[in-house]
Design goal:
mainly alpha
Length: 122
């Protein structure tokens, strides 16, 4: 598969996640944390991460469109995904196992795909 396509798919997914986190933070929080995710304080953090994902996703898409160093955007996105995986694993004792597996697994997958694709863009 073309690495630009991989980076584009990851960026589109990141934009979608960002939009959901901004517009429905309690629902998004509940997906990750269960009932605790509906807390108003958690919603604030979910929105903040939503902004991060939206900016990274849109920046990546714009870089791809303009051929303006999409590899750097992909690397930055992969770094955030790796940090998300680490944060999920650190919180594992407080989360249901299925949420840990899904959360950390999807973050590791995105980080791996993004990092690999970023090194092959050119």
């Amino acid at each position: 598969m073309d690495q630009r396509h991989v980076v584009r798919l990851l960026a589109v997914a990141r934009v979608a996640i960002g939009v959901v986190a901004l517009t429905a933070p309690r629902r998004a929080g509940a997906l990750v944390l269960g009932a605790r995710g509906r807390d108003r304080g958690v919603a604030l953090l979910v929105r903040a991460f939503g902004v991060r994902d939206l900016v990274l996703g849109l920046g990546t898409l714009q870089a791809l469109e303009r051929d303006a160093d999409p590899a750097t955007w992909a690397k930055l996105s992969a770094a955030c995904d790796a940090a998300d995986a680490a944060a999920t694993l650190l919180a594992a004792p407080a989360l249901p196992a299925t949420r840990v597996v899904l959360g950390a697994g999807s973050a590791v997958t995105a980080a791996s795909l993004g990092a690999r694709a970023s090194t092959r863009l050119g």
